[in-house]
Design a protein that fits this description.
Elements: H1 5-8, H2 17-36, H3 40-48, H4 52-84, H5 86-105, H6 111-125, H7 129-139, H8 145-170, H9 177-196, H10 203-212, H11 217-224, H12 229-256, H13 266-315, H14 322-350, H15 356-385, H16 389-407
Helix pairs in contact: 2-7, 2-8, 2-9, 3-4, 4-5, 4-6, 4-10, 4-12, 4-15, 5-6, 5-9, 7-8, 7-15, 8-13, 8-14, 12-13, 12-14, 12-15, 12-16, 13-14, 13-16, 15-16
Length: 425
């Protein structure tokens, strides 16, 4: 039987259309997720009361349960996507996300249902982000990978622009309305993906991955000890620090700016500020990241992002007016995150030695591990020592990450692509 050119060349770039279709899928996914973000504190406080410090600690445990499940299952889904393809895993993830949002919407005043919803979301949403990045690696050349990942990052940003802002408005019509809307959007996204998104992984690449066998701990250990290992450590540190902002931000606004932020307007204000951060990500990742990487390399861009974030966290406790917080530390953190994340993902992809799905999903697993311990730590620091301490701690962690990046800057300067995206199998 005659084999197609596509089957013969698993690393061949297949054009921009699949990447654009994937971008729509990711945008719809993050838009739905963003709808519930500003309303999570209200869900928690309907169950445990209006003690902000106690609610922040519970919120840390809730976020940790979601992330720890992602940590456990992300590498398995990534490896499975190397063997069966990216599209089936993305479709399964969307069904799981729809179910988890539905359960979340029904969880008002029931703390156990909140945890059940987040555990279900962690189990199946862990199949999405790393696999989406692997899809990008399938359809781009190594030189253009940061630009492709930046496009996905821009879609993340657009989701966070529209999602939290719309979710804050929808929350005024009922606490469950944003979650049910997000569930409906996940189902619409499932239909769109099923109808339009093609498979990115070739038959030849799948056969290569299947020859190595199913996911196992030995395979995972080889990936962690491989060329991308130190980047996994950096990913953990950056996400651990950034989780302080993600977990305690709404409670921080209520505690530090009571004259501007009240219980009734907190979801809207939080949503608008997070939307600003998303807009910064869209501008940088949607238009600038490719040119910055072409000029300074993935490593140079990543180090600049680490510096911005270290300074932003260091300045975070200083402003006493909401406008100064947004224009100063929040802007620095938004720029730093927008630079760092696509540069890291592109570097990890270029150093993949046992398949893009497994390697990129392992990176997401370290991200999820940081989101497990980071929210618990920041919630405890907030509750025990005050609202500023999580951000001071984050500044120290980011300084450590910057130091590690500078120490390994020669390893972050990789410019030559691997000869085969499955090299090492």
């Amino acid at each position: 039987m005659r084999r197609s050119r596509r089957d013969e060349d698993p690393g061949r770039q297949v054009g921009n259309r699949p990447l654009l279709l994937l971008a729509v899928t990711v945008f719809l996914d993050l838009l739905g997720f963003g709808l519930i973000l500003p309303n999570i504190p209200r869900y928690i406080e309907t169950a445990v009361g209006n003690d902000h410090a106690h609610a922040a600690a519970i919120g840390g445990l809730l976020a940790a349960s979601y992330s720890f499940t992602q940590f456990l299952f992300a590498p398995m889904w990534g490896r499975y996507s190397d063997r069966v393809g990216r599209r089936p895993i993305l479709l399964l993830s969307l069904i799981g996300i729809a179910g988890s949002f539905t359960l979340f919407g029904l969880a008002e005043e029931h703390l156990w249902m909140l945890f059940a919803a987040r555990l279900l979301a962690g189990l199946l949403s862990s199949a999405s982000i790393g696999v989406a990045f692997a899809y990008v690696a399938d359809v781009t050349t190594p030189e253009n990978r940061a630009r492709g990942i930046g496009l996905l990052g821009a879609c993340f940003g657009m989701g966070f622009i529209l999602g939290p802002a719309v979710g804050g408005v929808l929350g005024h019509y009922g606490l469950g309305v944003p979650a049910f809307t997000a569930a409906a959007m996940a189902l619409v996204n499932f239909v769109f993906t099923l109808r339009f998104l093609p498979e990115s992984l070739t038959d030849a690449a799948r056969a290569q991955a299947q020859a190595l066998g199913a996911f196992n701990l030995g395979l995972l250990a080889r990936v962690i000890r491989g060329p991308a290992g130190f980047l996994f450590a950096l990913t953990f540190l950056v996400t651990f620090a950034f989780s302080a902002l993600e977990q305690t931000f709404s409670f921080y606004l209520l505690s530090v700016f009571p004259e501007s932020v009240r219980q009734d307007n907190q979801p809207l204000i939080s949503g608008l500020i997070l939307g600003m951060a998303g807009l910064v990500a869209v501008v940088i990742q949607g238009g600038l990241i490719g040119r910055l990487v072409a000029r300074y390399g993935e490593g140079g861009v990543a180090l600049a992002g680490l510096l911005f974030m270290a300074v932003g966290f260091g300045l975070f406790p200083l402003p006493r007016h909401l406008g100064a917080l947004v224009a100063g530390p929040m802007l620095l953190l938004s720029v730093g995150s927008a630079l760092t994340r696509p540069a890291f993902s592109a570097l990890v992809s270029r150093k993949a030695n046992l398949g893009q799905g497994l390697t990129l999903s392992t990176s997401q697993s370290f991200d999820a591990l940081a989101r497990t311990f980071g929210p618990i730590t920041s919630g405890w620091l907030f509750s025990a020592f005050g609202p500023h301490v999580p951000y001071i701690t984050a500044a120290v962690v980011m300084a450590l990450a910057l130091g590690l990046g500078l120490a390994r800057r020669s390893d972050m300067a990789l410019r030559e692509p691997l000869a085969n995206p499955l090299q090492g199998i």
